[in-house]
Design brief:
globular, 170 residues, single chain, alpha+beta, two-stranded antiparallel ribbon, 27% helix, binds zinc ion
Amino acid sequence: MSILSILKYGEPLLLEKCLPVEKIDEGLRRLVDDMVEIMYAEEGIGLAAPQVGELKRVIVIDISAGEHPGELVVLINPEIEAEEGSVIAEEGCLSFPNITLEIERPRWVKVRGLTPEGEKVELEAEGLLARALHHEIDHLDGVLIINRISPLKRDLIVRKIRKKITVGEW
Ligand SMILES: [Zn+2]
């Protein structure tokens, strides 16, 4: 059983910039395992360490949501090296339960980072995987889905969330 829980919008930690991981050790691998476990338990397709309260540059993604073994992507200190095009699509986030927003993201990205074993990796992705990578790397800089919509829509959503918080539904 994982002891981690997912922080929701309103938690100040979600707005922080995360620090690069300096040392890949047993503690970090345990964090990765816990993140993967909670991502699957919550039926998400991606999770970033700040969402579980760890200000470290670590992301986990599985766009098959656990359906296809081998699709799990774990990246330490991921960086977007190149991106191309733009696509607008409906998107959710485990830190914004029951909310989906139309978000514009690159169609294609090239990302580099480290595996949990400390090996350098580089991957190119398009479609949903590109979107998920871009979304999770955003989290590492404190950028959330509501930071990628118009100020007008953002006000609307924030008001909606505040109302939910007031009545204890958030
Ligand atoms: Zn998210």
